[in-house]
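Changelog excerpt

This revision adds worked examples to the README so contributors can see how folded entries look when concatenated. The first example is reproduced verbatim below.
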Amino acid sequence: MSDSDTGAAGRSQGEMAQLSAIRLSVNDQVRRLEVDPRTSLLDALREHLRLSGTKKGCDHGQCGACTVLINGRRVNSCLTLAVMHEDDEIVTIEGLGDPDGLHPMQRAFIESDGFQCGYCTPGQICSAVGMLAEAEAGWPSHATADVASPRIALTDEEIRERMSGNICRCAAYPNIVAAIRSIAEGGPG
């Protein structure tokens, strides 16, 4: 190892990132923690707050397993830093409902058998809740037939397009679409 290599290695081992003290509002609870400022929201939720419902899939924003709701909008938590969300309302799958009081979307996934292994299910459910809010607000998608219409028809094609950022490796897609459609049509609620 050359002197320049030794110096670089010594600096990287010796330098520690300063921890950032942050307050996160997660599932209607304010949580205080100290994290490396480079910590993703996903890692803060799973490793620091022990909320393991949000899953780490690809860690590159491609699978959607880590989807949470931030201020009502769906976000891939692996692609955002925890320190960026101090004044935000974060909702994970644990905050949507519990075994004694399931969220309607959780109930719809159960009734429609919208999961197999269950790994992607928390992200699918959070994404579906956010997606329905987007459609209700009139936000069109690539598949929206009439972007000028004040009411978006949530056809199977529209739902599939809006949920395309969430991968299910077990291929439970038809049942996932059925669960979402049941809620969109006023199903289990």
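The second example, added in the same revision:
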Amino acid sequence: MGDGLVEGRHLAGGGRGEEAARGDAEPGAEASEGGEVRLSAGFDPGERAEADARFGGGLPARKTDGRTDQAPATADLRALATRLKTAPPASPQPDPYNGIPFDSDTEEIIAGYARQLSLTDVRQLAHAVSEGQPVTIEYVAASGSRTIRTLSELDFDPPYLHAWCHLRNDERVFTLSRIHGVLPG
């Protein structure tokens, strides 16, 4: 590959001179002695100086059909890498349905099954499940009757919650979608 000049810029190993000599160069390119290539059509030295000043000597502007396509400014890759390294972690991920970030996977799972619960109730129930603490819930049975129950020894098995029910004094299984309110136990 030979060295070449494009619009007055030197390209190390650009190979444009050989292409122009063979006739493979882009339209408007002319080969000169020594294998240099110069674009003759539409080149304005004033635009070149403006582009060099604007882009800090970056890629030159190229004129095609009366329009100027300017190369974007080069990004400082080291500064970008530093910003990415020091960025705070993106977790917890927000729930795609309402945009609220969850503190744990348990919260997200409970919110998915118990859509009628507020975020506060979801967090209270998830905390009780994670920490093994008792919790009081308002539960609506399949028959439609509402009861207030205090639960302990929680075992989370989505979409169910296995727990010791203090009202019935027995182990019971509760469906998450039927829990309508949560209070600390």
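Reviewer comment on example two: Residues 62 and 141 are 73 Å apart (CA to CA). The longest helix spans residues 119-131.
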